[in-house]
Amino acid sequence: MRRVRGETLTRRLAVGLGAAVAVLVVDQTTKAIAPGYIGAPVRVIPGVLTFTYAENTGASFSLFQGAGFFLGLAAIAAVALTVGALLRPRPLGEVVGFGLIAGGALGNLTDRVLRGPGLFDGAVVDWIQLPNFPVFNLADTAITFGVALLMIAAWRSR
Fold first, then answer.
1. Which one, of 52, 145, 151, lies nearest residue 103 by Cα?
2. Distances, alpha carbon 117 to alpha carbons 28, 34, 47, 105, 110, in Å
3. Residue 36 φ then ψ, to 5°
4. How far apart are CA 61 and CA 32, in angstroms?
5. 57 near 69, Cβ under 8 Å?
6. φ and ψ at 115, to 5 degrees?
7. 3-class SS at 24?
8. Share of the chain above pLDDT 90, in %
9. 85, HSE (Cβ side, Cα atoms, 13 Å)
10. Each residue of 38-60: pLDDT tens digit?
């Protein structure tokens, strides 16, 4: 088995899939709690952070509303690609980045599957709002941080 900086396939999968499962569990837990605790917007840090319950049948920034089937297939492809990326030797930062992306994709995919009448028709629960920015959730945050980690890793490898 090929190694990169002490990384084995077993360790890569444990770290990457562990990060994915952790994101999925925390994301789904917060989404289960949000509807019961967030009626009217809750200003946590006035002018900076508000908890606002919203449902989104589209993608980021509410693009592609009603395209659940396409977005569900895209999430499945993203998970497959990120897990596939863990099969090759790579630095720990990349492993964590891929795990965060997979976990975020699984979190939003879970909403699409469980919260609607059809296979991918469910709305994604969003509940975090920053000024001048659409409402989002922890799955979205994990995807963003995962992409940022991959970009930093790519920059450092140059």
1. 145
2. 19, 21, 37, 20, 13
3. -80, -25
4. 22
5. no
6. -110, 20
7. helix
8. 78
9. 23
10. 888 999 999 999 999 999 998 88
Q: Which long-range contacts (CB under 8 A, 24 or more apart) does 55-62 make?
A: 55/115, 55/123, 55/124, 55/125, 55/126, 56/123, 56/124, 56/126, 56/135, 57/116, 57/121, 57/122, 57/123, 57/124, 60/134, 60/136, 60/140, 61/134, 62/134
Q: Tokens standing for 26?
A: 């925390």
Residue 109 Ramachandran class (φ > 0 left, ψ -120 to 50 alpha, else beta):
alpha
Could you tell me the pTM of the whole model? 0.91
List the structure tokens of 73.
């297939």
Catalytic residues: 126, 140
For the stretch 58-105, pLDDT in tens is 888 778 888 889 999 999 999 999 999 999 999 999 999 999 999 999
* Residue 114 tokens, joined: 């469980």
Output the six-digit token pair for 153: 């890793």
Domain residue ranges of the chain, discontinuous segments joined by +: 21-28+53-124+137-156
If 0-12 CB within 10 Å is exposed, 13-18 middle and 19+ buried, where does residue 88 land? exposed
